[in-house]
Write a structure and sequence with these properties.
Layout (H helix, E strand, L loop, with lengths): L2 E4 L2 E4 L6 H7 L23 E4 L6 E2 L10 E3 L3 H15 L16 H10 L17 E2 L4 E3 L9 H8 L6 E4 L6 E4 L12 H5 L5 E3 L12 E6 L8 E7 L2 E7 L12 H4 L15 E3 L4 E3 L2 H19 L4 E6 L4 H14 L5 E4 L21 H6 L9 H9 L5 E5 L3 H5 L1 H8 L3 E6 L11 E4 L8 E4 L4 E5 L12 H11 L8 H11 L8 H4 L4 E2 L1 H7 L7
Parallel strand pairs: 1-5, 16-17, 16-18, 18-19, 19-20
Antiparallel strand pairs: 1-2, 3-4, 3-5, 6-7, 7-10, 8-9, 11-12, 12-13, 14-15, 14-20, 21-22, 22-23
Helix pairs in contact: 2-3, 8-13, 8-14, 10-12
The chain binds iron/sulfur cluster (2 copies) and FE2/S2 (inorganic) cluster.
The site of one iron/sulfur cluster has 13 residues, from helix 4.
């Protein structure tokens, strides 16, 4: 563990770190373009020059490893002159696009010019080298060759991470440009990540282009719920509308990346089919009612069925898109408040679901592992058994939470069962199952709900509520909490309260709190213990 001095402050860090990483430990920013922690060192942009005592020339921090006794200066006059010169060089041929560039507001050229540049240009505008603009690279990405600073982050991502090598650098000198290799399209499953690694506005997202200025958007930490990996994301939104998902780094889950399918998943969460008000079935069609009326109808139905047929005539099926908190409260409603043993989780994905050996899982449910850990999935009973019992008439009231049983079991099977009982559906959207509902309770999607999901590897991760559900819909945990209270249980005031109770009562989650889960997630305790080094290994 070498100790070195950076800008007069001592720091002791692990061997093998470079000077950008070591400075970061002290909260010192060394500006850089081509360096990216998940890619090989390229050392081409020269923006990270620093002064090192006893070395005659400035050195690039990205390719200089820490050493014992090193004395580094990142703000000396020599360094400042070099930084301004590098910026001036990079901007010589850069177009004056900021007013129309999607990267404006999060562009490293803009940021560094203000922090390390601010000089009068010595180059006439008309002398700039012109290159191609709006180059269509593939389904997700557009290239503007003039804006590129040739840092080679995109080519290294495609060479080293996806290993698909669609892009290359062509020509020489100030005529160099990024382009597709002949016959190639940038259409791999992770192509959107090149937009994230591009430090300037050269690579932009077709989906996000010209939709919003980034400084108007709010950002919240969340996770992608498109598959069982649960890639960490930043969710960008405004006035209850989502604009984009971008990957947030988590070395244990998704490193720095996410797939294109997940990146566009936000669109599926804000469709026209959203349920906006509680509905109850009238003579011919649904009637919109207040929450009080809808919940009373649910309670009356459940009490009546229990009185007439016993607790064994009530059952519930919950989809693995529900949060841990929702699954816990749903199971508690059925077992503790109503005395039924018939609660089953259902993790359904299409037979041809996309998957690979990197991030994309064929399980398109974000919480299969959570439902297993809670004992709801693969427990004493299955969703198929419950549906068969409904069909046979043994179950008279069925609660269905966040799963389309018609899609999962087929129209014929579902029709036979669902026409045979009182059906209470909790869902975000109209589905073929909601058509069978007697009471329809509108709930929030993951971005509209506070809660946790447990990914396939056992990482419990938080999704934070970005904005409230639309219309009169409520977060699922809140609806379940109200129902539990109406049936004599305690009412929870927040999902954090639900999680605290869950962690007390369910051994698989013992000791976990929202604080421990934090931004990076926490392993299920049993897995965390197994991962701890033994005395001998330590
Ligand atoms: S397109 Fe962006 S990431 Fe690729 S080399 Fe140019 S500036 Fe770097
Ligand atoms: S791999 Fe799965 S969790 Fe990650 S972004 Fe893609 S769909 Fe979302
Ligand atoms: S970041 Fe060091 S040379 Fe580019």
């Amino acid at each position: 563990m070498p100790t070195l001095e950076i800008d007069g402050r001592a720091v002791t860090v692990e061997n093998g770190l470079n000077l950008i990483q070591a400075a970061e430990r002290l909260g010192i920013e060394v500006p850089h373009y081509c360096y990216h922690p998940a890619l090989s060192i390229s050392g081409n942009c020269r923006m990270c020059l620093v002064e090192i005592e006893k070395m005659p020339r400035l050195q690039i921090a990205c390719n200089t490893r820490v050493a014992e006794g090193m004395v580094v200066r990142t703000t000396s006059p020599k360094v400042k002159t070099a930084q301004a010169a590098v910026l001036e060089f990079l901007l010589i041929n850069h177009p004056i696009d900021c007013p129309v560039c999607d990267q404006a507001g999060e562009c490293k050229l803009q940021d560094y010019y203000m922090d390390y540049g601010v000089y009068r240009s010595r180059f006439p505008l008309e002398a700039k080298v012109e290159k191609r603009k709006v180059v269509d690279l593939g389904p997700q990405v557009v290239l503007d060759q003039e804006r590129c600073i040739l840092c080679a982050r995109c080519t290294r991502f495609l060479d080293e991470v996806t290993k698909t090598s669609e892009l290359g650098i062509f020509a020489r000198g100030d005529h160099c440009y990024i382009d597709l290799f002949p016959g190639k399209r940038l259409d791999n499953l992770y192509s959107g990540n090149v937009v994230d690694v591009c430090p300037v506005g050269a690579l932009t997202s077709k989906d996000f282009r010209f939709k919003a200025r980034v400084w108007y958007l709010e950002k919240i930490e969340s996770i992608c719920t498109r598959c069982a990996t649960g890639c960490n994301i930043d969710l960008y939104h405004r006035h209850g509308q989502m604009y984009r998902f971008r990957p947030r780094s988590n070395p244990d889950v998704n490193q720095y990346w996410m797939c294109d399918e997940g990146r566009l998943w936000y669109k599926e969460l804000q469709t026209e089919s959203r349920l906006l008000r509680p509905l109850v079935r009238g003579e011919s069609d649904f009637t919109a009612v207040t929450w009080e009326q809808a919940l009373s109808r649910v309670v009356d139905t459940l009490r009546r069925v229990k009185e007439e047929h016993g607790a064994g005539a009530i059952a519930g099926i919950i989809g693995a898109k529900a949060t841990n908190e929702e699954a816990y409260l749903f199971a508690r409603l059925l077992t503790e408040q109503l005395g039924s043993e018939l609660v089953a989780g259902l993790s359904w994905s299409p037979a041809n679901a996309s998957h690979d050996d990197f991030l994309i899982r064929a399980d398109k449910n974000p919480n299969t592992r959570g439902l297993q850990a809670l004992g709801v999935l693969n427990g004493r009973t299955s969703a198929a058994d419950i549906l068969a019992a409904v069909e046979q008439g043994a179950i008279k009231a069925l609660a269905v939470f966040g799963i389309d049983l018609v899609t999962a079991f087929g129209q014929e099977k579902a029709d036979k069962a669902l026409s045979n009982a009182d059906i209470i559906v909790f869902d975000t959207d109209h589905t073929r199952t909601t058509e069978y509902a007697d009471v329809l309770l509108p709930i929030g999607t993951a971005p509209e709900t506070d809660g946790t999901f447990t990914n396939y590897a056992g990482w419990v991760q938080r999704a934070r509520q970005a904005f409230p559900p639309p219309g009169e819909a409520k977060p699922g945990w809140e609806v379940l909490s109200l129902l539990n209270a109406k049936l004599g249980g305690t009412e929870h005031m927040s999902s954090a309260e639900v999680f605290a109770e869950l962690a007390k009562k369910v051994p698989a989650f013992a000791g976990l709190t929202y604080g421990k889960v934090g931004s990076r997630g926490a392993l299920l305790p049993e897995l965390a213990r197994a991962a701890e080094p033994t005395m001998a290994q330590a």
